[in-house]
Recover the amino acids of this structure.
C-alpha cells in the first residue's frame, strides 16, 4: 500500500516535531514541569509520558490511540464504500465509526491529564523518602533555639 503525498508530508512534520522535542536538555533535578508535559502530550499521545519517564504507559497510550484511529478509519471507509454483500448493515458502520471517534478523544484527553499528574508527582518518591521523625525533631530543635 503506497503512502500518499499528504500522508508523507504529515509523517515528515510529525518526525520534525518529535525531533525538536527530544533535542531539549533534560532536567537533572528530576523535577518535571507540568506545562511541558502537557505541551508534549498535546502534540502526540504518549509524548507526555515519555517526558515524565513512564515509558510503558507511553507505549500503551500511543498504541491504544493508533488502534482507535485505525478502527475509526476502517469503519469510516466501510460506511462510505458500503456494498450489499457487507457482513453488517450500513448503520452499524456509522455507529462503530462514532464509537471509535469517542475513544480517540477519550484516550487523547486521558494521556494529557495523566502526563500532567505524573509531572506534578515527579518528586513524590524523594519527598516520601524523608523520615517524618527527623523532620519533626529538626523543627522542634529550631523552635527551642529560637526561645
Amino acid at each position: 500500500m503506497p503512502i500518499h503525498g499528504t500522508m508523507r508530508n504529515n509523517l515528515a512534520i510529525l518526525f520534525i516535531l518529535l525531533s525538536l522535542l527530544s533535542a531539549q536538555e533534560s532536567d537533572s533535578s528530576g523535577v518535571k514541569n507540568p506545562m511541558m508535559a502537557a505541551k508534549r502530550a498535546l502534540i502526540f499521545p504518549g509524548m507526555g509520558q515519555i517526558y515524565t519517564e513512564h515509558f510503558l504507559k507511553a507505549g500503551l497510550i500511543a498504541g491504544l490511540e493508533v488502534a482507535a484511529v485505525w478502527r475509526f478509519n476502517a469503519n469510516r471507509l466501510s460506511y462510505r464504500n458500503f456494498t450489499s454483500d457487507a457482513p453488517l448493515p450500513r448503520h452499524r458502520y456509522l455507529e462503530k465509526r462514532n464509537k471509535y471517534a469517542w475513544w480517540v478523544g477519550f484516550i487523547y484527553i486521558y494521556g494529557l491529564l495523566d502526563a500532567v499528574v505524573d509531572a506534578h508527582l515527579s518528586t513524590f518518591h524523594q519527598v516520601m523518602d524523608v523520615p517524618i521523625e527527623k523532620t519533626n525533631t529538626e523543627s522542634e530543635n529550631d523552635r527551642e533555639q529560637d526561645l
User: Anything to note?
Assistant: The helical segments are 5-22, 34-43, 47-51, 55-80, 90-120, 124-128, 132-146. The chain has a mean pLDDT of 84. The chain is about 75% helix and 0% strand. Residues 5-23+32-141 form one domain.
